UniProtKB/TrEMBL annotation:
Any Pfam family the entry gives: LTXXQ
Protein source organism: Comamonas kerstersii
Name of protein: LTXXQ motif family protein
Ranges of compositional bias, category Polar residues: 130-143
Keyword match NADP: no
Keywords carried by this UniProt record: Signal
Basic and acidic residues bias (residue ranges): 88-129
Family annotation (InterPro entries): LTXXQ
Coiled-coil stretches noted in the UniProt entry, renumbered to this chain: none
Signal peptide: 1-27
Top-level taxonomy: Bacteria, Pseudomonadati, Pseudomonadota, Betaproteobacteria, Burkholderiales
Basic residues bias: start-end ranges: 152-163
Amino acid sequence: MQRFQRTFATAIAAAALLGTAAFSAHAQPQTAAAPAAQTAPAHAHKAQKVDLAQRHAQRMDHLKTVLQIQPSQQAAWDKYVKAITPEPRAKADRQQRPDLRKLSTPERLDLAQQLRKERNAKAEQREQATRSFYASLNPSQQKAFDAISAQRHSKSAKHKEGHGKRLDDHRGPRHHGAIAAPTTAVQ
């Protein structure tokens, strides 16, 4: 019983010490660099949006160069690019969505179903545009398109597979509240 009381008292003292250290670190005045660090992620996020659109345009230019699009194929190319180019998300779209916290469960499910239908409709439009464009290509262009498409999907699959694998590999029994057994017996 005394051993338990000592261990418990030690744990309380350690928690108090950590709490004091955390409080004193929190109470320190912020430096001039701190406000800039707080605004940096917002700027990085805006830059990322610009980079995504720019990167998509670069991919399309690269694909057009690799496929060597002929003037007779330009209309099909333009239609394809228009169909697969992601629409920029407007702030107005986010403001028009209802507050999910105020909706009942059936209303949230209905909204999710509606959004899923819209996403599926857009995906079908992209697929149809891709099929139509692919049909306008000659066999050598189709082969090049297949290679680029397969490479792109391969990278996407590896990224998704690697992400899940990393999480599984680096989480041991201690990450989920389990306590590992001691390696030596206490006597």
